[in-house]
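Researcher: Sequence recovery benchmark, item below. Answer with residues only.
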């Protein structure tokens, strides 16, 4: 019985996928501005937050013209019944342009068996869009 419990514990740990995310936030603002980026795993029933990063910048005009870097990581154990892919995307909230704005990216499919997955995405908050 102890062997079975240990085996199930090892399988549960081995099945987790580790995600790392990074990129740049560009905002040309003379005032204080903040952003929150969330890496999400989208499902039909409920969405899971994989990782979250928050930061405020300013009011230094020179630094505010330079992109701000973000890095975050998290993990997911599984993706529900009969689904062999994580659907991973970003949700960004910011006030770079003076009012609260939102950016939602399309999701990418990541095989559950992947084990480790990295993704980079840059954002132009003045244009409220993803940078190419």
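Model:
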């Amino acid at each position: 019985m102890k062997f079975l419990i240990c085996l199930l514990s090892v399988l549960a740990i081995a099945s987790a996928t580790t995600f790392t995310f990074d990129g740049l936030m560009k905002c040309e603002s003379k005032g204080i501005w903040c952003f929150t980026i969330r890496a999400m795993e989208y499902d039909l029933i409920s969405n899971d937050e994989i990782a979250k990063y928050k930061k405020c910048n300013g009011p230094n005009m020179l630094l505010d013209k330079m992109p701000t870097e973000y890095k975050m990581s998290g993990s997911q154990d599984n993706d529900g019944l009969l689904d062999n892919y994580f659907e991973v995307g970003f949700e960004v909230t910011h006030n770079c342009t003076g009012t609260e704005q939102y950016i939602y990216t399309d999701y990418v499919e990541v095989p559950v068996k992947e084990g480790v997955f990295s993704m980079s995405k840059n954002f132009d908050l003045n244009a409220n869009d993803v940078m190419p």
